[in-house]
Design a protein that fits this description.
The complex is a heterodimer of chains A (480) and B (157). Chain A has 16 helices and 15 strands. Chain A has 480 residues and is of the alpha+beta class. In chain B, helix 5 runs parallel beside helix 6. The chains are: A alpha+beta (480), B alpha/beta (157).
């Protein structure tokens, strides 16, 4: 853990001599099997050790400090203060301070070997190398350097922990704020979207009873799903001006109703004579269509904001991650028709989770991939989703198994300056049409991922952009 | 007779439809055109110029894929063929920097915030159209119904 700065040669050369002269007596060499305690905390100890082989860890037990409640996992052997590998000295402070009392439990993590000196050890070659303390100065400096670097590491860890706390405070504020906004907007948007439907329906019924032809035009306006670009509309208008000899205004109206000139050409001259009147019904329908689209968008935004505000999260055991991915794909079914989706599922253990939250995570990431592919107009757009289990090794405090979900696409690379920003609220690169970005998607993903103590990693190259999510299979409860 | 054009630029067709609708009272005395982005607008202006027609006002959205509204208006401002063309930025999310650029680079004549009031937008465009017609020395009597009387009187006094 602690990275020691290399000591200069003037220190290491004398150290080699000291190790040779003072720490090579076989009678003072001990074998310490793995798990054995070399020195107990608080125990009298007149020795100082050099670790010759193996690895030790120093644990410190809290000494009944009032108000200090250590977490359960560290209560059995105390918190780990440092590690000592071959070449390190142990009990330097207790030895040279003449306290002769260890501050730590020193435990062998591997089968190890140590050699020691004690308070009876005399200075060797004193006339040439000076008195005992003088000779051991490099050892003391070595120890100081080690302690120093330990403090730096701890400070850096603390900094990181503080940063995490700050981030969670920020998202908590954002969550409260957005929950409030979502609540206020929800009713308003609900009324707008419901009444738009209602007005559209009544109007259609009314027109149907009055005049079938007008009702037909109205319906065509409501159901219009041609996405003609402005330049398409212009060229269609020019076509109608030329071919049907319409004044420019009428031609424009025709272009709006029939961007496909093949269809427009087939309209009767009676229809065209009454164009202004006919257009009114079509336009009425078309307005309601736009209102429906807009209110649907607003509803989606409110739902997304509510989610960001951290709606009720009920986590239950037995959630099938694969199913949540399939749900997300179903939700996006309509958009995903335009591209290839490849899935590779491995058998996964059920986890404790809120299925809705997971669906939200996948939906946001997949939708982002889709938007990036569409905005970039990538040829042969493709999204690949795969799942698997990751076994971790080493000294992790977290549960050892992770479910890993990889969602990748062959869209454009995320610009380097953006890669750290993509999880920030309000960051977006989306600009297309009604489907513009809110910059909320990935910040919601981050919030949910954090609450599961999961990790998310982004890899982006010209060929492929991947989001890799690792969720621990064992969830720690009571965190949210 | 050469035609006077007013061009609206927005990447969202729904917004474009609304702007066009609000400016409809100006037709048929002037021609309303729509463009979906910067490139599309420049292409359209090229075409209008080729046909010997004029562009009186360009009303552009700021945030669009590719180039921004400010960039478009800047290009129009530096094009001699459209020297008198008036420029309006219509936007809902311009930053402080965007606004500065709009004035310095885009040389906008007016800045309208979304959502806009239809009457206000129409009166702004009428005023700019009046200035354009007077600048170009066109016969303003032909356009009387759609001109801004106050501007007309103050300039002709």
């Amino acid at each position: 853990m602690s990275v020691q700065m290399p000591l200069p040669d003037e220190i290491t050369r004398p150290l080699r001599r000291i190790n040779q002269v003072y720490f090579s007596d076989p009678a003072r060499t001990l074998e310490v099997p793995q798990g054995k305690v070399l020195v107990h905390q608080g125990e009298e100890c007149y020795r100082m050790f050099l670790v010759k082989k193996g690895l030790f860890a120093a644990f410190r037990q809290a000494e009944n400090v009032a108000g200090l409640d250590l977490p359960a996992e560290s209560s059995s052997r105390g918190y780990e203060a440092f590690r000592a590998e071959a070449g390190s000295y142990v009990c330097v402070q207790s030895f040279f301070s003449r306290m002769y009392r260890s501050s730590y439990n020193i435990v062998a993590l591997e089968d190890s070997e140590v050699c020691y000196i004690d308070d009876t050890t005399m200075a060797v070659d004193a006339p040439f190398y000076g008195p005992f303390e003088r000779q051991f100065l490099p050892v003391i400096i070595h120890e100081l350097a080690a302690r120093n670097s330990r403090i730096f590491t701890k400070a850096a860890e603390k900094e990181e922990a503080l940063r995490l706390v700050q981030r969670s405070e920020m998202s908590a504020t954002l969550a409260q704020l957005s929950a409030g906004i979502a609540h206020e907007l929800n009713n308003a948007v609900g009324v707008l979207s419901r009444r738009t439907e209602f007005v559209a329906q009544s109007l259609e019924e009314y027109l149907e009873a009055e005049d079938k032809c007008n009702a037909e035009l109205f319906r065509a306006g409501v159901e219009d799903n041609s996405y003609a670009s402005a330049s398409d509309l212009r060229s269609a208008a020019r076509y109608y001006e030329r071919e049907l000899e319409l004044p420019q205004e009428a031609a424009k109206v025709m272009a709006h109703m029939y961007p496909d000139t093949e269809l427009g050409r087939k309209q009767t001259s009676r229809f065209i004579r009454n164009l202004r009147r006919n257009y009114r019904f079509w336009e009425l329908g078309h307005d309601l269509r736009d209102m429906k689209i807009a209110s649907k968008l607003a509803t989606g935004i409110v739902r997304a904001v509510k989610m960001l505000g951290g709606g009720k999260s009920t986590r239950e055991p037995g959630v099938d991650v694969e199913q949540t991915i399939k749900d997300a794909l179903n939700l996006l079914h309509n958009q995903l028709k335009h591209l290839t989706v490849q899935t590779t599922f491995s058998p996964l253990p059920p986890i404790t989770a809120d299925a809705t939250e997971l669906v939200q995570v996948w939906t946001n990431i997949i939708k982002n991939a889709y938007d990036a592919l569409m905005q970039d107009q990538t040829p042969n757009p493709r999204i690949c989703i795969s799942t698997g289990i990751l076994h971790t090794e080493g000294h992790r405090l977290l549960p050892s198994d992770y479910i890993t979900v990889t969602i990748s696409n062959n869209g454009p690379a995320i610009a380097e300056e953006n890669i750290t920003k993509i999880f920030h609220p309000n960051f977006t690169t989306k600009k297309l049409g009604l489907d513009f970005g809110l910059g909320l998607g990935l910040s919601i993903v981050r919030r949910v991922i954090d609450s599961y103590r999961a990790a998310i990693e982004v890899r982006s190259t010209e060929e492929e952009t991947s989001f890799i999510i690792n969720i621990p299979t064992t969830q720690i409860h009571g965190e949210n | 007779m050469e035609k006077i054009n007013i061009i609206c630029v927005d990447d969202q067709q729904e917004v474009l439809d609304s702007v066009m609708r609000d400016l409809r009272p100006l037709t048929p005395l002037v021609r309303l055109e729509e463009a979906s982005g910067v490139a599309d607008c420049l292409k359209l202006m090229e075409q209008i110029d080729d046909e010997g027609d004029m562009v009186a006002v360009v009303i552009s959205d700021q945030v669009m894929p590719g180039e921004s509204g400010t960039e478009l208006l800047g290009k129009v401002a530096s094009d001699k063929r459209f020297a008198g063309t008036r420029k309006v930025l219509l936007t809902g999310q311009a930053t402080h920097a965007d606004t500065i650029n709009a004035i310095n680079e885009g040389q906008v004549d007016n800045y309208v915030e979304k959502p806009w009031q239809p009457e206000k937008l129409l009166s702004i465009v009428k005023r700019l159209l009046t200035l354009y017609i007077l600048d170009k020395g066109l016969d303003h009597t032909e356009y009387m119904p759609i001109l801004d009387n106050a501007t007309l009187f103050s300039k002709l006094r």
